[in-house]
Amino acid sequence: MDETTKQKLLDVMKSKLNRQLLYYLDVCAKCGACKDACHIYRATGKAELVPSHRADLLRRLYRRHFTSAGRVFPSLYEATDLSDQLLDEMYQAAFTCTGCRRCMVYCPFGIDLTWVIGVEKAMLSAVGKVPEELNMLADAAIEKGNSIDLYREIMQDQIRSLEPELRELTGMPDATIPMGKKGARVLYVALAGTGSILPPAVIFNLAGEDWTLSEFEAANYGYFLGDTARAARIAERIVNEAKELGVEEVVLTECGHAYRVMKHLDEVWSKQKFPFKVLSVFEPWARYLKEGRVKVLRPIAEPATYHDPCQLGRNGGIYEEPREVVKAICTDFRDMTPNREKNWCCGGGGGLVAQTDLEEFRADTGLVKAEQVRATGARIAATPCENCRLQLALLNERYHLGVEVVAVTDLLVRAVAPGALRKPEQEPRETAREQEASA
Amino acid sequence: MHALAYWITGPGVYLAVGVFALGLGYRLYQWRRMAASPMRLGIFPKPPPGAKVLRIVADTLAFPQLAEVNPSLWVAAIVFHVALLGVFVGHLHLLGRFPGQLEEMMTANASLVGGTMGVLWALAALYLLIRRFKTPYKEISTPEDYLLLLLILGAVVMGDHLRFFGHVDVGVYQEYIRSLYAFRPELPAALATSSVKWSFVVHILLANLLLIYLPFSKLVHFIGAFFTNGIRRG
Question: Which residues of B touch A315 (CB under 8 A)?
Fold first, then answer.
């Protein structure tokens, strides 16, 4: 490794050293409790995949370069200098972690290993050592923000083509999908595919909401790269749009990390206070049901379970609203064990789903989740996050779970839309990621 | 050999206490001078406003989450730390006479739990040490982890030896401590001529090393855990 690269990596590391990080690096006792909380270790039993060990790679560098004890007695801490080998190990460690933070729930010290791993990701990002697929998706999103005019027409055509189906489903001849509507109360941010546009449009129309569809997609691949600068630029597109339209609420689609980024992270990254509220789509859904603005016409009798996505649940704080929705429409609801902040990660988070070379790894490490789903005896597995759905679909196939993996809003449409008389075909819709990849 | 015993039990103790205090102060300074992330990075659900401090203290002292995910490690860790506390309180008795009722309580405490705590501590430390030699703990451990456990185990075993085989009266240890207070450290004759003199010297040596190393080791978790648990509940 040449000196310039070395210096660059150390500079990034130095810029990321804050109080939290020092606590985490100094306090971890390497007790290994995190391994029992991690689905990846549980499924593989590989020592290098123990969460604390993933973070230990950074700790070695920290000892070597930023502590006097580590400089004087490097071998005591296995302190090491930067090398290509260390960087390779870091890459393997950082980009195979789903960032679910389940280990933080169970750590006796409450150490956020994802935070430490995030610093490793930031360093790797700085020298371009990142999964190419994530990199391209992040750049494409920023590029779209720069040249939205080129995309606008294509997108509008796409949206218009959805409206006949929307009218059929809602039974409302004037149902629309408004875009760029100034002064709308709600800005709804979907994913890139049409899959997260039509079903919410049905609900918004049925509820008589004053809404408009965002021109941008909620997914943020900069965040998965640990590149906060790029992540903030991706989020900025939506923030600017919401400000221009003057909306009261920005409602994020059923996407875990997108909600977390907008609700909990971006205000700090971009050093501003949003003039609008950030909500997850489940908050209006639960409210409409409660207020009777949306009525359950056909309750679903098949046993149904709900998977808490990590970014929406333990990292985002949305547990009850999606459950309220599922319980309102499914007569046989079965919660997973454990659930909420203790729920097992599906194995697809942290951008892992977008890395095609990790498919086998994801199928293997999803074992714990698969068993958990099977134990509920449910035939329907509803979950909000696109990553979770893709991953659960993979596990469904691999472990023959015999469940239908479905978005909560899709399920809601089935139960409340007057036009949705028969169960929609089981053909998987084009996923957001495939759409983005082909864009 | 008399000189060696003197340097370990005399100036060595001052050095250890000094390095411990300054080192720990420096560690705290290093932590607190860094900017804290303005993000609230806690796990949801957040505790109700009034309960936050209580949860942080409970998390730090009892770490109930560990009991759920790794019961055997939790038992070992609880035994280890309760014994540590017991031994710590027991040692306070050596610092001098306590006023009134308290002195009687300290004496009663020492005879009741003193020996038990020392043995439990040694067993827990041994368990944690042996555990480190198994996969995957072996792979995730660094020499620091073994060194600390060896220092603790050594000091505790020596302490147990003093207790069970020494037959040295508590007053003798108090006399030694008084000599330290007066900056005229010396081993009282009863101890210097006792058969356990070298257990005592090694006990003090290992305790000194532990105190010196502590601020630069992962043992800073005894303070840091309050902060990290605070972030989780934040």
Answer: 43-44
In tens, the pLDDT along A197-233 reads 999 999 999 999 999 999 999 999 888 888 889 999 9
Nearest chain A alpha carbon to B33: A19
Tokens of A9: 């990596």
Q: Which residues of B touch A264 (CB under 8 A)?
A: 39-40
Which residues 92-121 on chain B approach chain A with CB closer than 8 angstroms? none
Given strand A211-217, what is the order of strands in its sheet? Answer: A211-217, A186-190, A249-252, A277-280
**CB under 8 Å, gap of 24 or more: what pairs does B47-50 form?**
B47/B233
By CA distance, what is B213's nearest residue in A?
A: A69
Residue B40: pLDDT over 80: yes
CB contact under 8 A, A47 and B59: no
Q: Are residues A335 and A407 in the same domain?
A: yes
- CA distances from residue A253 to A248, A284, B13, B113, B121 in whole angstroms, order as listed: 16, 11, 63, 60, 53
* β-sheet bridge partners, residue A278: A250
Q: Point out the residue among B69, B135, B136 whose CB comes nearest to the CB of A37.
A: B69
Nearest CB to A20 within list B45, B144, B231: B231
Go through the domains of chain B in sequence order and give each one's CATH number.
Answer: 2-232 (1.20.950.20)
Q: Nearest by CB to A29, which of B35, B216, B221? A: B221
Q: Which tokens hold the place of A370?
A: 């698969």
Could you list the beta-strand ranges (E) of chain B: none
Q: List the domain range (segments joined by +) for residue A105.
A: 3-126
- CATH number for position A266: 3.40.50
Residue A406, Cβ density class (10 Å: 0-12 exposed, 13-18 middle, ≥19 buried): buried
Kindly report the number of other CB atoms within 10 A of residue A210's CB atom. Answer: 13
Integer angstrom CA distances of residue A41 from A6, A130, A399: 31, 23, 19
Tokens of A104: 């933080």
Query: CA A401, CA A399: separation in Å to the nearest integer?
Result: 6
Encoded amino acid at A25, one letter: L
Return the structure tokens found at A356.
């095609």
The answer on A243 and A298 residing in a single domain is no
pLDDT in tens, B125-140: 999 999 999 999 999 9
ipTM of the complex: 0.95
Q: State whether A38 and A119 are in the same domain.
A: yes
For B6-10, which contacts have Cβ atoms below 8 Å and span 24 or more sequence positions? B6/B185, B6/B186, B6/B187, B8/B201, B8/B204, B8/B205, B8/B208, B9/B176, B9/B185, B9/B187, B9/B200, B9/B201, B9/B204, B10/B180, B10/B185, B10/B186
Q: What is the DSSP string of A197-256?
A: THHHHHHHHHHT--EEEEEEES--HHHHTT-HHHHHHHHHHHHHHHHHHT-SEEEE-S-H
